[in-house]
Amino acid sequence: MGHTEIVLEDIWIYLVLAVVVIGGGAVALFRGRGGKPRDLPPGSGASGGARSGTATLDTDTDAAAGPVAPPEADTDTTAQPTAVEPAEPEAPALEHPEPAAGRLVRLRERLARSGALGSTLLRLLSRGDISEADWEEIEETLLLADIGAGPTDELMQALRTRVKVLGTTDPEQVRDILREELLTLVDPGMDRRLAASPVVGDDGEPHPATILMVGVNGTGKTTTVGKLARLLVAEDRDVLLGAADTFRAAAADQLATWGERVGVPVVRSDRDGADPAAVAFDAVKAGREAGVDVVLIDTAGRLQNKAGLMDELGKIKRVVARQAPVAEVLLVLDATTGQNGMRQAQVFADVVDVTGIVLTKLDGTAKGGIVVAVQRELGVPVKFVGLGEGPDDLAPFDPKGFVDALVA
């Protein structure tokens, strides 16, 4: 009997131990690996845990403190993290180009600060007794300024006669004489307006003013196209650009950047080396369909002594004319090239009938005489001048302001 009681007591002990072991296993099963519950719904409301879709239980709770109460449901839906749609990248703010009037003031100031030509002439002409050596220095100064031999002879004769007749050495009177004679050479009577208004073609339909930009390599032609587009936008013109320089890989990208800054569209080829005439044709066609005021066409820089390239330029003009009359052909010249620039200008004029000149890099008036020379040679006006590297450093050429700055 005593043995039976001992056995029953042992069995009772074993049963208690089994229950304890089984209960511990159940707790472990509930907590899962790492002490985290297994079947919690995603986004169940744990702060900081919604990204992973699980709630984190506090695994450091003392077991003696009793069972851990489940977290209360968060009924404040405004506190729940929400998926945020990625914001669309904002388009860059369009720039507002400076009006032409402000540009002219700034350009005149720059010319006046670098007035080497005018200051030299005034110094020599204001001497009490101008010697023959002085006259020779005056002539040399004019020639170095690239005025050209013919205009220099005319100016020398006029100055000699007027200074001798007046018999004056007063600086103000000498300045007035020099201003009048230089202005005569620059010719303020030439029509320097840009044809930038839509025209009616032979078909009776409106056409945008088509402007072809030409020039040799390295004159800053593509940059000038971009600056001219800015000037036209400042005058409230609707502009479209044609990237017909298809041989220089970066030219179309460069032009597109200029256009983006002021909201001007660009027509370009999707491959390098495309037919530039076809691109120009498409640009004018797109301009007609969009009803823009002006289509500016950038062409590849080319050497004036390369007959094939010059013939291609003539082809571009002929193809463009099938869509719309060519209102302007602007030749971009580097003002520092001097007489070499004159030879370039003549060849371009023979091929595409240049209607106006854009002088770039006119950053010193020591070479300002090129204005006179190129106008005399081609019989067409300088319409725009560029000074400096800024995007708005292009302005309509003002003969009076130019001469006043020279002799300031």
Automatic annotation (TrEMBL):
Record keyword S-adenosyl-L-methionine present: no
Family of the protein in this entry: Belongs to the GTP-binding SRP family. FtsY subfamily.
Database matches in PROSITE patterns: SRP54
Compartment(s) where it occurs, according to its Swiss-Prot or TrEMBL record: Cell membrane; Cytoplasm
GO biological process: SRP-dependent cotranslational protein targeting to membrane
Catalysed transformations (reactions): GTP + H2O = GDP + phosphate + H(+)
Protein name, entry field: Signal recognition particle receptor FtsY
EC number: 3.6.5.4
Topology within the bilayer: Peripheral membrane protein
SMART domains: AAA (SM00382), SRP54 (SM00962), SRP54_N (SM00963)
Region of interest: Disordered: 32-99
